[in-house]
## 1
Amino acid sequence: MTTKLFERLVTKFSIKVADLIKYLEISKATIYNYRNLENFSDIPKDKQYKIFYLFGKETEEELILVLDESDPDILAKYVNRISSILKGSVQEQKESLASIEELEATNERLAKENAALQRQLAMVQGLKDIDEFTRTVLLDKVASITNGASTAEIKEFIDYLDIFEKYRKFGGKN
């Protein structure tokens, strides 16, 4: 068997370490460890399969034959295949990253919506002792007063409600 097969393949086809890191999903140190291995079979099977796929081969013996290839047209086909697969791998990772960012943004938006709904539920539960008809009329009236109102008008409405609450608690029971 040919020694340092992986190293020779990487060198012959000028494959960048950064591309291999992304494609094989391993660290830079692991890439260098693979490059220094005497036997290709010492590379984990799942990574061997990815390397076979990169060259369109199924066995170590077929990879050895790739090293012996000198026809420029065939070598160009290998380079194109490798470039295409590595670029595809990088593109998939970029798309995955974009998807993760979108999911995080959606999660943040939904968390805010959930918090707002929890506050609304707590407020509505404060009206639980009022009969359904009265509660509906009250909420409809508040909605009609505040709908389209400016911030200052809403503040004034809330101030009136505070005044009514104090009146009811302290002065309205005479």
## 2
Amino acid sequence: MKKSIWDNRVLGAAVLALAVLAGVLGIGGAKLNAAAQAAVTYYADNMSADFTARESAAQSLLSIAESAGLDTADAAAALQASQQAQTPAGRYEAGLALATQVGLLYNALPADTRDAAGSAAQMAWSEFTSRTAILNRAVPAYNQLARDAAEKASGFPASLIAAVCGIHTEEMV
């Protein structure tokens, strides 16, 4: 007598194993992906625009410094590195060098260009430092989200699920 599909224990065990595997990968992968995306979302919502605005202010200061006859090569290289950074951690690291170079450039400007109330240099510097302060306040929250995701993706079986599902966590800044 031929067994029906419901009587075949080997097939039943295989189907059950596949269902469990799909459930673990599906649900576990979704949870890990949500944790990993939290840092990415926070960066996009709270930091990306500030990096861009700070780079625009830096570009304005570079233009003013060039007009004043200053050497802007180091600051221009730092700005380019910041604009080309692909990750939040890379952008933050490049931003540290940018802050140093722009600060040196601003202080090298002639006093009448730099200190005149409402001058373009003062406005750009104010925007640059303001965006830097905003970013510095946002970093701890971003780092906590990145840390949480890394902790959730570490260990077994989470690391295996992350590898199978192609999930990676962001670096802290």
## 3
Amino acid sequence: MARLYVRSGIDPDAPEAAFPILVVDPDGTPGERALARLGGHCYEGEGSFHLVRTDGWAERSLDSGRLVVRIAVHPVPLQQAGVGLAGFPERSTIDPDAVLLLSARTTADPARCARLGEPTAVFTAGPDVTLDQLLADDEEWPIMLAPPPPST
């Protein structure tokens, strides 16, 4: 099961800024495996990979004091990553063409969530690897997912 965290101290230019961080298991649920495979279809940034916002994004909301992050991706990038769509019947409410790969929740302070930084970082690691280990490892690059594209 995907693990969701809210952490500050990630951005050295804004140490007080908090960001959602999702950790997916490459051997986990179908959604986790699909998201892990998308890393090879991202563009490389400075210490991270980026999924183009028109291909996929992170939808965030608050529900009864819990931060909810849903990952939505269009079918074409999934198919390019070798992911079949049959196992993903749910669709994004923002764009019904986009497939919902997974949803994760964590308890979070609503005031802190109101100040969350824009990208959602996604790391790929097994359940025995802690978030602190991932953050300390300069060779572990996350996939950065922007919020949904603006509605037209």
## 4
Amino acid sequence: MTSSNEYKRQIMNDLAQGNTESLNDTTSSEPINEYDNFDDFAQRSSREERHQLFRRSLHPDRIPASQMEPELQKAIAQIKPNERDDVAREFFNHLKKRGLSDRDLERQLGLSTHHPSRMNADDVTKLASFTYHNHPDIFQDVMADQPVLIKFLSNPIVGAVMGVVAAKWLQRR
């Protein structure tokens, strides 16, 4: 068995046993919600709740680019085209507030277009990867606003980080 499979098994065992000690460091005084699955979490959780979880979890210091980039590519390829457009649009909107125009990003990143509705999965992956490396706070904001992408990430490290979310779902079960 590979160490990756052992790592996944250990995480799932910890979660199954109710090991939720990482949840105690939240500073929110709001009641803890129960979620049935990721879609339920994505629909019912507040933006702030998602942002707080992603701010602690999704950062280049915790998940190196060498592991995140292939995961982003696979995840973006799996989401629906209209959801992919929304993700790209969010990245462009946030980056524009930092003074980066969509046309400049198109040239700099080698995108096929700067129109989110015309972007293919490869273009959105390049945009997401650029944002993850250079503007991790924007990446976290977009993931909080467009959480559909997170459910397709499968790397064990990403899975471990997202275990915080899974523990929240399983906390009272």
